[in-house]
Amino acid sequence: MALPVQDLNHVAEGLAYLTDQYKNPANVPILQGLLSVYLRRIQDLENVLWQIVNTRILANAPTGDQLTQLGNLVGQPRGAFNDTNLLAAILLRILTNKSNGLANDIINMVAAISTGGWSYWEGAHAAFGVGLWNLASPDLAQQLLTAAKPGGVYAELVYTTWADGNDFSFSSVYLSSAGEAGWGSVYGSGASGGLLASARIL
Description:
By secondary structure, this protein is of the alpha+beta class. The chain has two domains: 10-54; 99-201, no CATH class. It is built from seven helices and four strands; from the N terminus they run H-H-H-H-H-H-E-E-H-E-E. A four-stranded mixed sheet has the order 1-2-3-4, with helices on one face. The chain is elongated, with a radius of gyration of 28 Å. The chain starts with 9 loop residues before the first helix and ends with a strand.
C-alpha cells in the first residue's frame, strides 16, 4: 500500500473536473474564478495539515513539546531526556510495543539498544539472557526489555557502562589472546584485574 503524499495541485485538479461546457474561461470566467478561490482554501488546508504531519514524523526529528506528545502517545515519558535521547527512546519503545516476546524480537531490541557490543543466550525452561556492553542507560534498557519479554519467562540483563577492553573474563589455556582481564592481585599493582559486569533480573 502506497503512503499518502501531499497534493500541491488542488486548484488545477478541481477545475479539470468541469464539463466541457464550463472549461473555457472565455465562456464562464466568473464560475472558474469562484471555483479557484474555493479550491485555494482547500489547498491552504492541505498545506497546514501536512505541515502538522511533517513536524511529527519521527524521521524528521521533531523537537520540544511535539516530541514529548509523541512519547506520551507510545508510552515513553520524557523524564530527564533531552530531545536527542528522547527520540531514540521513543524508537526503542515502539520496538517494545511491537514485540511478541519471540527470540527475534528480543534480539532486534538488544541490537537497537546497544551502544557497544551485545550478546543473547538462551537457558533451560524458556529462560534467556542478554548482555549489553558500554550501555548508556541501564534503567531504560531494563524497562524496555522487561516490557518486551513474554510473561512467566525468566530473563537477565548483564551490562557494563564502560568501553570494552578491561572487563573481567577468564582467559583460555589454548588461546592466549582470549579474555580481557582476570583477577587482580594484592601483591602487584600492575595486576589490577578486570571490571565486573552488573546484572539485573528482567
